[in-house]
Write a structure and sequence with these properties.
By secondary structure, the chain is an alpha/beta fold. The chain is built from 15 helices and 18 strands. Helix 4 links the parallel strand 8 and strand 9. The two termini are 47 Å apart.
């Protein structure tokens, strides 16, 4: 816990409390909450489950009213845990205390750069950005933090909700909905707690920013596993679909899709239409992208005749001037720019996005291509997506340059199409047709 507060560069005061006293990581230790005055803004409890109630009682008598309880051993842990849960609830009510958890892995928020915070035992900080994740599974949070680095997902806040004795998913969702630094909210849920309360909050938030949910328990076996995991009674999958629809939530079917949503909605939180053009320098990935677009409900539009004529004049005769468009493997910056400039100056009213595929062959320096695409991005009236494949010798600088220019970059052409499809489905969900 202390290491993570240091790692995130939390600027506030941190006071370790342990009856043995001394120092931890060079920080003086208070032997009791009685020695922590004035009362802390937050007390994070990381003692054994059978000692939690004693700490809560000490907090109550010493003016500490906001607590985050990480250990399990409560409502999810049989009769002994259920009794401990009843006592915890009674103490919270008696002393007007606000309690997060129990049975959670904590939370991280890097949304406010001046007050980064990490009360958690997760191994690492997320990459940072405007996307938040609320999860009823700590393991899902851990995986999303890892993916934020591997897939360059702009994940800036994560919350492991745990048993949600007082602070449930709706509570955190409402807070993130009111945070202007949060651009999109991801959910991993097995149940939605108080349905009417969640519905009210979700409708309000989804009117301002996208909510994307992965809901466990699609199968009867999965619902049984969810009950054993959190004690929640998961709904039938069709009921969940209807509930998400009424909330304005886009439901996705896999963790892979949830990861892709993190990138897609960070760049284009308003979504986009479903009509796309694939522009590639390689036939195979273009074919796969075409199949995926069709499977995901995207429409590959036909190019107008005047644009086709201009493209045929500018490109080699072997190039495929169609949708998908193949610029050929040896395409350099001049060929990419020529094609994109023609498309930019040939208004195609029904076109909603261009999906670029750039396979980097050994005989072409990708740097100038990346620079050219980044320079053009801000001039386009519609979104550009980019998939960069092959051996990328300068991967991080290239991807940084493109994403700074507002172009999300993917390592797989099919995943790029899936991301575009989610954006189109979300716009349709909210009735904002192009």
């Amino acid at each position: 816990m202390l290491r993570n507060l240091e790692l995130c560069r939390w600027p506030g005061r941190v006071i370790p409390v342990n009856p043995k006293g001394g120092t931890i990581r060079g920080i003086p230790v208070a032997v009791s909450l009685r020695d922590v005055q004035p009362p802390a803004d937050l007390v994070v409890i990381v003692v054994r489950p059978d000692n939690v109630l004693a700490v809560i009682e000490e907090a109550a008598t010493t003016g500490h009213s906001n607590l985050l309880v990480l250990p399990g051993g409560f409502s999810e842990a049989g009769e002994v845990g259920a009794e401990r849960d009843r006592q915890l609830r009674a103490l919270a009510k008696q002393h007007n205390m606000l309690i997060g958890g129990p049975n959670c892995a904590g939370l991280i928020s890097l949304l406010d750069p001046e007050w980064p915070f990490a009360a958690t035992f997760f191994r690492d900080m997320p990459r940072g950005g405007g996307v938040a994740l609320l999860s009823q599974s700590g393991a899902i949070v851990e995986e999303m933090i890892s993916a934020s680095h591997e897939m360059r997902l702009p994940l800036g806040a994560v919350v492991s909700i745990g048993n949600a004795m007082q602070l449930d998913m709706a509570s955190y969702l409402e807070a993130l909905g009111n945070d202007p630094a949060c651009k999109a909210v991801l959910l991993y849920a097995e149940s939605f707690g108080q349905g009417e309360r969640f519905l009210e909050v979700a409708r309000g938030v989804s009117a301002r920013k996208p909510i994307i949910a992965l809901v466990g328990g699609r199968s009867a076996e999965g619902r049984s596993a969810a009950f054993r995991h959190t004690g929640s009674a998961a709904r039938e999958s069709a009921d969940v679909d209807a509930f998400c629809l009424s909330c304005g939530i886009l439901r996705v079917g896999s963790l892979r899709e949830l990861k892709l949503a993190a990138k897609a909605f960070a760049f284009f939180p308003s979504g986009l239409g479903h009509r796309v053009l694939i522009l590639s320098n390689s036939g195979g990935p273009g074919v796969l992208a075409t199949d995926r677009c069709v499977a995901e409900g995207l429409e590959l539009i036909d190019l107008p005749e005047d644009a086709v004529e201009r493209l045929m004049e500018a490109l080699p005769p072997e190039a495929a001037v169609a949708n998908p468009m193949d610029l050929l493997a040896d395409a350099r910056a001049d060929r990419f720019v020529a094609a994109l400039e023609i498309l930019r100056h040939s208004p195609i009213p029904q076109l909603d996005a261009i999906l670029l595929i750039h396979v980097v062959p050994f005989m072409v320096d990708a740097g100038p291509v990346v620079a050219a695409l980044a320079g053009l991005a801000g001039k386009f009236p519609i979104p550009l997506f980019h998939c960069m494949m092959g051996t990328l010798t300068d991967r991080e600088p290239w991807l940084d340059e493109l994403e700074r220019a507002g172009v999300p970059v993917f390592g797989d052409s099919e995943e790029m199409c899936m991301a575009a499809s989610m954006l189109a489905r979300h716009r349709k969900l909210l009735g904002r047709t192009a």
